[in-house]
Amino acid sequence: MAAVIEIRFHGRGGQGAVVASELLAQAAFLDGKWPQSFPFFGVERRGAPVTAYTRIDTHPLGVRTSITTPDVVVVLEPSLLRTQPVTDGLRDGGLLLVNSSHPAEELVLPAGGRRAAVDANRIAVTHGLGSLTMPIVNTAMLGALAAVTDVVSMEALDRAIQEFVPARRPENQAAASDGYHDVRVVGGTLPFTPSVPRAAAATLPLPEGPMASESSERYHTADWRTLRPVIHLEKCTRCNFCWKFCPDDAFSFDAEGYPVLRTDYCKGCGICAVECPPRAIEMVEEA
Ligand code: SF4
Ligand code: SF4
Asked: Which of 4, 16, 228, 256 has the most C-beta neighbours closer than 10 Å?
């Protein structure tokens, strides 16, 4: 009998959600299954919400639609739980896997269900993947996914990382292994053959909803922020570089020409700290 499983990834630009969906498909192929993966982009920039999909079948796939009723939702950035409808359409008996340092028991699902959590930020930082500001958590999350579902074997995931990840392969393999061993699950793991019959999904709206390109004047991006820039004015030369390079126009200036952070618009990407010539900006953890 054919078995199919549908996985939807939610992350922010720069975290590797799209690569995660592709890597999972590669690993499933190595496991002898029939996968497909594809992304949905809204605003294409670092820090913007990104959705990607992987569908895996034991037989050739005829379906090419986006995934509106996933069996598994993987959330690479926990703040998306508050700002995006990430659990929309998640099937009864499905599984929510979140990058979080909090216990899986604290994850809220509308109808109970399986919940899993892994501290992928810590794992990624431990293995030098990405930065403190934007850890690249995709391989840690895939390791966790391999542990809490039958969707892919750890051996195939390890091989896919070895063959398809362009850089830092040993570190990514180690992160996947840590994700596999560290993940905590409530409600049981998810078998490859979902026990719940599939419902027609055609009438459900896309989880992303309509997206328009607008500036953060309209869409406050502050709720994305996990790190916050602090300006040390004693070092500031009033060069305005922070204002020039900030992608969200999050700086104004006081009467003396010193920068003032407009916190409603700062998403915490850290570009200003990198570009500030005298290193007058420090990124600190959001309180
Ligand atoms: S103020 Fe700095 S950290 Fe905030 S959005 Fe602008 S560049 Fe990024
Ligand atoms: S880039 Fe640095 S030195 Fe230049 S105005 Fe901004 S904080 Fe000051």
From this structure: 16
Nearest atom in ligand 2 to the alpha carbon of residue 279 is: 2
Q: Identify the three-state secondary structure at position 228.
A: strand
**pLDDT score of 167 more than 50:** yes
Q: Which ligand does the CA of 240 lie closest to?
A: 2
Query: Among the atoms of ligand 2, which is closest to the Cα of residue 237?
Result: 3
- Can you tell me whether residue 201 is helix, strand or coil? coil
DSSP 269-285: --HHHHH-TT--EEEEE
For the chain, domains (ranges, CATH) are: 4-186 (3.40.920.10), 222-285 (3.30.70.20)
The protein residue whose alpha carbon is closest to atom 7 in ligand 1 is 246
DSSP 50-80: EEEEEEEESS-----S--SS-SEEEESSTTH
So what's the pLDDT on residue 238?
A: 87
C-alpha of residue 165 to centroid of ligand 1, in Å = 29
Whether pTM exceeds 0.85? no
Quick: pLDDT tens for 53-105: 999 988 887 776 778 889 999 999 988 888 888 888 898 888 999 999 887 77
Spacing, Cα 224 to ligand 1 middle (Å): 11
Is the distance from CB of 69 to CB of 91 less than 8 angstroms?
yes
**C-alpha of 248 from chain center:** 20
Ligand 1 atom at minimum distance from 271 CA: 7
- Span 207-265, pLDDT tens digits: 343 333 344 555 566 777 888 999 999 999 988 888 888 887 788 888 888 999 988 88
Cα–Cα dist 94/82, whole Å: 20
